[in-house]
Write a structure and sequence with these properties.
This protein has one domain: 3-Layer(aba) Sandwich (Alkaline Phosphatase, subunit A), CATH 3.40.720.10. By secondary structure, the chain is an alpha/beta fold. The strands form 6 sheets. The protein has a 6-stranded mixed β-sheet with strand order 11-10-12-3-13-14, with helices on both faces. It contains 16 helices and 16 strands. It is 24% helix and 10% strand.
């Protein structure tokens, strides 16, 4: 779950009492617009277009076959795959997915092409930070570091950050500290990030609001970085050496987006149900979102189809005591609790929620005993401080590398288990965290036609005006992705636009399940990441131990 401090303080800057919506375009000088256009937007086709093309390609190689689902505490069941299911996908008997917290693609993997050049990997087209692109060869090509307009120094704190003709250009830069103060992905911030002057998306995104939103929130909260410089920071292959190695040897994407332009809770609801049913905020924020979600989750579909599933949570610092652990207590650490059906798990399916990250955990035992379910979700270890979320409080620095080490140990345990031979592990992030990325959100399909129903007074899109980004018809920003499996194409980069609900499409394709909403129905099925006829990694590689030695401080940059 998100840290309490983010829910109540750092991320509460979305309220109109703290977040000042920028003035309209016609009140500002054109010289400011010129400064903001340093940021390049790379266009791509909408998800609907990209997905339909992808399905057509795979349709040629489709075949009808039968799959037998291996039982985990359930009877095996035979199912027929539809004619449009890609052949070979039945070799995947375990799909494991984990979404960590609040990191953008440029922030984590922007330096990936330079890492390839430095470490002997063949170059691939990859749309990271342009200062790391080559001058020739595969596009995109080299360009100067992207910038955002910064706060006019004539208006220092406690005044709000002011963007005008005197705003300095803040370039992307390498972070030295592994600990950074939080930036917010919430509704207002995500929309201002799109364009400081046009947050409702009436024109093409300029992506010029990241520094402003980081500065505005910092001044409201009292962070050190009151000029929002941290939003432009990035890490490299020495900081995130495990992730860079895995992304380089397995598969990644430069068009993988979070589902919605808002914060953690709605995006994690999309992750398991392909909708937030109109919620832009966490359940209970106001009268517009006081009820639990009634949407069908992927786990309901799996249960109804007789396919095994399990949710694993880390009980460290949650107040849950064990072993044995009370399933009702473990449920409080899973976002499935925000669904009506999720509340039935402790009594109806108590064995389907278990532990990870502690001694003799259920995940460890399932790997050891060959009882890993067909579909496994791993929740982020937030209360253990291992979810990679930036620091929500200056008094409690969050060490990014410790979270990456934790994830590496989970992935390594899968690669060394008997389940490796028929598994796929998908690592991604719930949203981009308000950290700079140079690629615009993509047009997407509304999952169910429900518009945001819980916007607060004064919120963007809640003042009698509207625009394209005011409904759930755009994704959020890009986030990192690594797809790890014996069948993953080696050193592969996908350029197909998709969001986290494509994980649901993969599960639905593998186990012959219907789509949950129009959003997951529009996604690619992720089979382009795999080569089932020629497995490259039946013997997995030996990755490096994740570095944890970088400095940790919050009171200065870089």
């Amino acid at each position: 779950m998100q840290r309490t401090t983010e829910s109540t303080a750092a991320d509460n800057t979305v309220s109109s009492t703290l977040f000042r919506v920028p003035p309209p375009l016609n009140t500002l000088g054109s010289s400011v617009l010129g400064a903001s256009q340093e940021t390049t937007v790379v266009p791509g086709c909408p998800i609907q277009c990209a997905m339909s093309q992808n399905r057509l390609v795979h349709l040629v190689s489709c075949m009808a076959t039968a799959l037998v689902v291996g039982g985990w505490g359930l009877n095996s069941v035979a199912q027929s795959l539809p004619s449009n299911t890609p052949g070979g996908i039945t070799k995947l008997n375990h799909i494991i997915f984990l979404a960590q917290e609040n990191r953008s693609l440029d922030h984590y993997f922007g330096e990936l092409r330079q890492y390839w050049a430095d470490n002997g990997y063949a170059d691939r087209s990859f749309d990271g930070l342009r200062q790391f692109n080559p001058a020739s060869g595969l596009p995109p090509y080299y360009g100067p570091p992207p910038t955002n307009p910064g706060c006019d120094p004539a208006f220092p704190p406690p005044k709000d950050c002011t963007i005008d003709g005197n705003s300095p250009k803040i370039s992307s830069f390498e972070l030295i500290t592994q600990c950074t103060e939080n930036t917010s992905p919430s509704w207002n911030e995500s929309h201002v990030d799109w364009d400081y002057y046009d947050p409702m998306g009436k024109a093409r995104a300029k992506l010029n609001g990241f520094v402003y939103t980081a500065a505005h929130d910092a001044r409201a909260i009292g962070f050190y970085d009151k000029d929002g410089i941290r939003a432009m920071g990035y890490y490299d292959g020495t900081d995130l050496n495990y992730y860079y190695f895995m992304a380089s040897n397995f598969a990644t994407s430069d068009r993988w987006f979070t589902p919605a332009m808002t914060r953690t809770h709605p995006n994690r609801e999309y992750l398991v149900a392909a909708t937030s049913q109109g919620d832009a905020y966490p359940i209970g924020t106001d009268s517009g979102d006081k009820n639990l979600l009634t949407a069908t989750t992927i786990f309901q579909e799996l249960q109804n189809a007789g396919v095994s599933w399990k949710i694993y949570v880390n009980p460290t610092n949650t107040g849950c005591n064990g072993p044995p652990y009370d399933p009702a207590c473990l449920l409080q650490t899973s976002y499935i609790k925000y669904f009506q059906w999720g509340q039935t798990i402790p009594k109806k399916y108590p064995k389907n929620i278990g532990t990870i990250g502690v001694t003799n955990s259920d995940f460890e035992n399932d790997l050891r005993n060959g009882t890993l379910p067909a579909v496994a979700q791993i929740e982020p270890a937030t209360d253990a401080g291992l979810d990679e979320h930036p620091s929500s409080s200056d008094s409690s620095p969050s060490r990014t590398q410790n979270g990456a080490l934790y994830v590496s140990e989970i992935i390594n345990s899968v690669m060394s288990s008997s389940s490796w031979k028929d598994s796929a592990f998908i690592l991604t992030y719930d949203e981009a965290g308000g950290i700079y990325d140079h690629v615009s959100p993509h047009a997407a399909v509304s999952p169910d036609g429900i518009k945001p129903k819980d916007l607060l007074p004064g919120d963007i899109c809640n003042k009698g005006q509207t625009g394209p980004t005011c409904n759930f018809v755009y994704t959020g920003y890009r986030v990192p992705l690594i797809v790890i499996s014996p069948y993953t194409k080696k050193h592969f980069v996908s350029h197909t636009a998709a969001d986290n609900t494509a994980i649901l499409k993969l599960i639905e394709t593998r186990f012959n399940l219907p789509s949950l909403t129009k959003r997951d129905a529009a996604q690619m099925n992720m089979t382009e990441f795999f080569d089932f006829a020629h497995p490259a990694w039946l013997t997995p590689p030996t990755p490096p131990v994740q570095n944890t030695a970088d400095a940790c401080y919050l009171n200065k940059l870089p």
